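BUG: 3D viewer hangs when loading the predicted structure for this chain

Environment: internal workstation, default settings.
Expected: structure renders.
Actual: progress bar stalls at 90%.

Input used:
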Amino acid sequence: MARVRDLWHTTVKGPDGKPVKRKTARHPDLGGNKDAKRWLALWIAPDGREESKAFRAKDPARKHAQKMQEDVERDEYVAPAAGRELFGPLAGKWMRLRKLGGGSAVRYESVNRLHVEPWFGERQVRSVRPSEVLEWLVNLAKTHGPSTQEIAFHIVQGTFDLAVADGMRKDNPARSPIIPRIANDPKERDPWTTEKVWSVIDQHPTPYRAVPILGAGCGLRQGEAFAVTVDDLDFENGKLEIRRQIARVGNLIVFKLPKGGKTRTAPLSPGVAQAVQAHIRSHPPVETTLPWMTEDGELAEDKVTVRLLFVWRGQLFVPPLAEGARTRSNRGLQKTAEGLNLRTSVYNTLVWKVALARAGVIPPPTNDERGALLFEEAREEGMHALRHFFSTTLQDAGVNLAGVMDFMGHSRKGSRLPVTLGVYGHVTEETFEAARNAIDRSLFRLRAVQDHTASGTEAEQAVSL
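Structure tokens produced before the viewer hung:
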């Protein structure tokens, strides 16, 4: 029950048995601090314990005690000490409870450390106001794109959701009406033409030419293409099992499940199959062992060994791309990396972007002070464009959307999807056949599959790590 208590006086029985008010040791006349708060508001918390807060005047103490007791009765009670917890540790707890996958965990940790903790890490949870969240978001938008903004805001919003759920504060300042929605709508991209796809494929060194063919012909992401093994290929039935990807998580290179934590099956057209078979004849699969990272971000006890189709091959070399262009030596950059698995950052810089430049898709690179190649930003010309080509080709050919989504690895369980697609959309053998025909009609209609020997000229090799 709500009540107040006078800290400067106490009531005792007098000699006649009647109550008498006496000064306590806290009273200024008895040596107490004259500036000390006199009145103590008292109420019963939900756990049955009596809580308190001191005030200078009686009326504010009485109103506060009454308000806190009413909050208890309405199930809106927030303990005074609860909101004193710092935001930083609570954000760490929120991320642990999310059970983020290995790659996502690293990304969230990085965004939190760089963009959230400097603003809110040392703040008490109860002290942050909606206007401060808005100011932080406005400043973040000046220097970083929607993807970083979205992750950072998700951390802040989720942390305050946890604070509200645990009774540390009544409201979530990140859910205030003054906070605008972060615009992260995907931009429409013009799909690559078949001619553009082949112009880039043709500029790939022979050991890696089948990588973009699998990207355009099977809709593989880059890390998935790097992780294809000979055992994933079903040439007889025209299918490719996509069971893993190669990813960098922190300082580790690991195998893990494809994006979304699930495997899938993609159509393998005759044209793509012939190109892959030619690659296997020229460059036999290489046994490779890497750690396996589970979806909770932990490393499995045993490493995984598979026979990869694509690894670095032999003496790797990139000659000058244009007249007068420098490399680190007159002979070009060379390094032996035989048998090492492909890595996204190195492949992008020294194989993919080199092919784009030679095909005229992006400008030729320049060199930094050490002679290393410097390319212009080419986010819209990444290898993901080949997945876009695959999807567009299938849709233009009339392949049912349920099949396209399954082949791409997109979930059909979303509540926003029509019931016809989410529940009744089925992928049959006819769907696979339609997809295989669509790819061959588009990608291989005017192209013959070329075989390559295992040996090649220096100009046919790619640069290494």
